[in-house]
Amino acid sequence: MQLPAEFITKYKKLLGDEAPAFFAAFDEPVEKGFRVNPLKATTPAMTAKMTDAVPYSQIGYYGKVNGNSLEHLAGAVYSQEPSAMTVGEVARPKLNERVLDLCAAPGGKTTHLLSYLKQTGLLVTNEINPKRVTALGDNVERYGALNTVITNETPAHLAKALPGFFDRILVDAPCSGEGMFRKDPDAMQYWSPDYPAECAARQREILTETVKMLKPGGHLIYSTCTFAPEEDEQMIAWLLQTYPEFELEPIAKTAGIVDAKPQWADGNPELAKAARLFPHLMRGEGHFIAKLVYHGTTAVKPAKPVRDELTPLQRKLWAKFSDQQHLALPPLVLQAHGDNLYGIPVAMPVTRKLKIFRAGIQLGTFKKNRFEPSYALALASDDLALPKLAIDHDQWEKYVHGETFQLTQTGAAGFTVLTCDELPVGFGKVVGRTVKNFFPKGLRFLATDDNTVL
Ligand SMILES: C[S@@+](CC[C@H](N)C(=O)[O-])C[C@H]1O[C@@H](n2cnc3c(N)ncnc32)[C@H](O)[C@@H]1O
């Protein structure tokens, strides 16, 4: 691979004897990986692929998965470059925490956090770019999250609305992306010797707002996919100098993950607690990760909780549907936005000032005199008591193509979650022996045995 000349000069100087191995790694094949979602069933096809475990992740494997497969569409697997998996492992939230993923699209780290929050607490997942937030929404939906709010905000607006609110904040910062060069050589065209410093200026702005949102005792996890010291060690050195209330926590170093390099910043030996992932030392593309605890003491007045907002008719239609389906959801605040019913995590405070992309799980839509459940509710139904009907792979292929299909005998009438290999795949409506199709029109595709192999 033809790396930029100034890039070569810079890393020869920084890495010394190690530089040739570092440069040689750019000509090696890209490492692919995937995570399994422990909140979903494991299909036989997944088991067959889960042979080469990523040593520092409890749920990560080397290998490639297909975006058209049942497992991917049902949120049972997520394709992720192996070094990026360290971030979710280091950030690993505790149950019931309030977590913010500030730079979140397309959702690699968000889905990782969801696997560990296990539907408890609150995840606010934010993407500033309106074009990228849709992909984040799709991935959160596939993961069946009941505890997530998706925002499309600037860090400054979020900090104004939610000061001192979060137990844990992940800043997976926009960066110069040097760790992406091997996977995506086009990324090199944005690179110039000044680019890391430009990115660092933006990262300092993002971190300045982030600090305002942390609870005393809260954790900040900062990561990049670049090797540039300006955005890595020097960013954490700046943070520690500017906010002495932060303390670095050590990150376990296994499988070729190494200490960050204090000498690439201000020499503060504490910086070695952060981690570097280099492609010549481990099986991955490259990353930098730091974990810090915040000893600030700013007291923040509790935010106002959100309240149910339903008309009497909407309340009646929802109650009728829930009764018919014997549906017992975890506590959610119910609000109708237009005809759509949302279940908002109870820990989310009033958010009128924020640009919300999705206020919580979209539970369904009020039609004239009835309630129609959503695709998102089906995908969140793994542990919910809802009528379910197992279908086989041939029927699933018909389903994702938008076709109705026939049962061999009459099924229980009404809405039912269709499952394939124990994974919920969407709603169907059983009428006699026919299953009417409620797979979202925008997601339909021509599935074959070949193009859906995991
Ligand atoms: C490294 S990517 C995030 C990848 C994501 N965490 C994942 O694992 O899939 C960084 C993101 O930060 C967003 N971003 C760019 N400028 C930003 C800013 N000023 N504040 C917050 N986010 C920003 C980008 O749009 C991009 O989606």
UniProtKB/TrEMBL annotation:
The keyword Signal does not apply. Keywords: Cytoplasm, Methyltransferase, RNA-binding, S-adenosyl-L-methionine, Transferase. Transmembrane segments: none annotated. GO terms for molecular function: RNA binding; RNA methyltransferase activity. Residues 1-295 form the SAM-dependent MTase RsmB/NOP-type domain. GO terms for biological process: RNA methylation. PROSITE patterns: NOL1_NOP2_SUN (PS01153), SAM_MT_RSMB_NOP (PS51686). Belongs to the class I-like SAM-binding methyltransferase superfamily. RsmB/NOP family. This is NOL1 NOP2 sun family protein. It comes from Lactiplantibacillus fabifermentans DSM 21115.
